[in-house]
Amino acid sequence: GPKVSRLLPFLEQRGFVGDAYASGAQALAHLRRSPCHVLIIELELGDMMGVDLARTGKTEGTVGATLLMEDPIKSGMVVSALARGIEAFVPVPPDETMFIDKLETLLLAQWGIAVTAQQQQLTEELARVRGLVDAAQEEAAEARAALEERRRTASRELSEERKKVQELVREIASLRDQLTTMHLVTGAKTGISDEGRPTRSSEGPSPSA
User: What are the counts of helices (DSSP H) followed by strands (DSSP E) for the chain?
Assistant: First the structure.
């Protein structure tokens, strides 16, 4: 509005960056392109009420806080606007010191909100990363446990196979001994020597020439 437009050079001289618009529609279009931390309004903007502009901006997330500049004679409307969510009021004509103090207070509050939101985001991200790390460590522990169990199982199976092989070796040795004994006994009963020749009896007369 016109009251805010006249303050723009004053604000720019003190390092504040801002824009001024003659109508609510122009201001709303600008906010949708470039959100602001503090919106300075008048009660009436010609095409809409300043309170409606502020409420739309907050609903759309394009306005942080709102500072109302208005003639104190409209005290009833000012009180109503403050009750509807306007954060601060400065009477017109404004006292420069009070005006800058209120503006800086609102900006600092918005900065605090932004920092808090950033810290919350970082906290959530840290918690997410910690969750991923914990999950990875748990998976690694499970993998190590599974690997150790497979190692123990393989060790048991290998030990059992070794026992089976040793038992088989003993059985083969026993069979070999049995076969050798049977061969000797059979040879003795049939008069066949180990070399396959007939054996001579030690009893009875020897054959004549």
Answer: 5, 3
First and final C-alpha spacing in the chain: 158
Sheet holding 36-41, edge to edge: 36-41, 63-70, 88-91
Distance from chain centroid for Cα 128: 3
**The predicted structure's pLDDT at residue 209:** 42
Q: What is the pTM of this model?
A: 0.57
Average pLDDT value for the chain: 84
Rounded distance between C-alpha atoms, residue 174 and residue 161, angstroms: 20
Task: Say whether pLDDT at 189 is over 70.
Answer: no
Q: Which residues of 86-125 are buried (b: 16+ CB within 10 A; e: fewer)?
A: bbbbbbbebeeeebbebbeebbebbeeeeeeeeeeeeeee
Residue 67: partners with Cβ closer than 8 Å, 6 or more residues away: 38, 39, 40, 41, 86, 87, 88, 89, 90, 102, 103, 106
Phi and psi angles of residue 42, each rounded to the nearest 5 degrees, phi first: -110, 165
C-beta atoms surrounding 18 within 10 Å: 15
Q: What is the pLDDT of residues 80-105, one digit of tens each?
A: 999 988 999 999 888 889 999 999 99
Nearest C-alpha neighbor of 33 from the set 21, 47, 16: 21
Altogether, the residues listed in the chain come to a count of 209
The answer to whether 43 and 49 are in contact (CB under 8 A) is: yes
Is residue 53 within 8 A of residue 24, CB to CB? The reply is yes
